[in-house]
Hints:
The chain has two domains: 2-95, no CATH class; 99-247, Jelly Rolls (Sandwich). The protein has helices at residues 31-50, 83-86, 213-218, and strands at residues 2-6, 8-9, 26-27, 56-59, 98-103, 112-116, 136-139, 142-143, 154-155, 160-169, 177-184, 187-191, 194-199, 207-210, 222-231, 238-247. The chain has three helices and 16 strands. By secondary structure, it is mainly beta. A hairpin with a 2-residue loop joins strand 12 and strand 13 (194-199). It is globular. Strands 5, 8, 9, 11, 14 and 16 form a six-stranded mixed sheet that branches. It has a six-stranded antiparallel sheet with strand order 7-6-10-15-12-13. Strands 1-4 form a two-stranded parallel sheet.
Amino acid sequence: xxxxxxxxxxxxxxxxxxxxxxxxxxxxxxxxxxxxxxxxxxxxxxxxxxxxxxxxxxxxxxxxxxxxxxxxxxxxxxxxxxxxxxxxxxxxxxxxxxxxxxxxxxxxxxxxxxxxxxxxxxxxxxxxxxxxxxxxxxxxxxxxxxxxxxxxxxxxxxxxxxxxxxxxxxxxxxxxxxxxxxxxxxxxxxxxxxxxxxxxxxxxxxxxxxxxxxxxxxxxxxxxxxxxxxxxxxxxxxxxxxxxxxxxx
Length: 249
């Protein structure tokens, strides 16, 4: 059971308990951005249901004092979520998808990665042909050991890290391949040299991110390379990722 998810914050002028200094777990500047984030959260929730999640509680029904995480404002005068966004709730009651590990993340099966803490000399560091033999070797995940909820196999405490690992595929007949990524903070991911995803900011657990069309097309039978660049600025520090395939029943 997920005891709390959401926390999408947006203060609405003239409808807050506190005019300045209010906050949300994630802050947005517009209703459109907040609604898009809500729909994405619901899609994440469905995938987690496919992995065994039985229940989840959204934060929260209304803004409360300094928090602006509500579906409604503090005075109940404005509903922030649109009917179209709320309609995404219906999918939660459909049969959950089948989620299959393609490349397990470290919380399931730690693996060996090549890594460097200095910027690579070649702009093609993410390509399959790049020679990473001079890089260090470490076990996933990478980060500061006091990062909440993180399974750290190799300590990383500098401002940037570059990583690569090889994995084999017997087939590329995937339905909906997605990254399963825990990033703190900004991460850029490549598969066989093709941009797979850019995930800014941080999260406090594994999120699902659909592969780009280019990255999906780049997957091939046999040997594949996944490469990651991460920038760290403050707070927790961690990177780990894998790939799953999400198939509707």
